[in-house]
Amino acid sequence: MPNLSLSTPTGDINLHYHIATPISPSSPDIVANLPSIIFIHGEYACQEVFEAQFSDPRLRNRFNLISIDLRGCGASGGVVSKSHTPAIAANDLHLFLEKLKIPGVHVFSLSIGGHVALEWAHAHPEDVLSLTLCSPLSPEEPEDVKAGRLEVFDFWHDSSAHEGGTPDCEADLDEELISPMVRGCQQMMFSEHANPLTEAVTMTALTHASINWAGSPEILVSCRTICIDWFIERKVFNVEFYAKIKCPITIIHCEEDIGYPLRYAQEFEALLREAGHTEVLLCQVPGPHFANVVYPQLINPILSDRVLSVATPNAGDREEALSEGSEGGHNALLTTPFKEALAQYGYHSDSDEWDSE
Where does the AB hydrolase-1 domain start and stop, copy by copy (predicted)? Predict the structure, then answer.
């Protein structure tokens, strides 16, 4: 599993990442002259939440796809102190690009990942060529959503506050308390939608969480920082902040999002236009907060269209990549870097296909 060691202003970290190209589901390098998309995950989940994007030939045959576990999440390591913020996570991504010598990228973010993406595009506009923000948050956390997140954290705290976890080892969790917590997280992320992929994404995230966020009071501080403080203490962006972002922006509002109604997305769009952005698109799609998992056939074309509107892939490089390594037919799902991890929890995409529409 590829990991990149970085020295940052807030300590040394290891970022776990994958690069998927038309040639390979797990490549050491991008294909030159093809646009690259970096995926920034949301709360609770890690990069496996983008399985339905990495398996889609309409994305994989056109672009380099790069997924990263943020610091302290998934298989990435590094100190997450009480002062850790989305802005620090954004700088981690900037250093990641610098070290791998990857030129400007397009960004697809999910939920709180959008806050990281906006901080990144603001601080390093040369890095970010376009933003596609799926389920971005409201300026401030709504009280009912805040209460739900605190309830989830309380269940997690009570189930895992005892000693038992060690680095790279799962903590011994209280199953009786974990079950309602998992249901609460799934309700927030997937609403009433359930399928083998939502279950596998949930269980993969739970396994990582039992390693990263459980086992001692000190570790629980890191968990609270990322799962609570990032939400209830997040920076409120203003017009001046948005004016420093230079790239086109697409906002995807998911109509079944129980926490963040459409009006927040509309207010966000209005602020961007007030800041001088003319290339802003607000799209509405069915589905829950993490609609990219349950409705990828609606989400993925929006992402592809945004990237292609900025930079058309080099046709020669794309055809060469396809002839060397693409899998299956036009609609057959492709192998991803997450296949083995998700298969442990019953998800197998080998025979799946999506409609061409």
Answer: 35-150
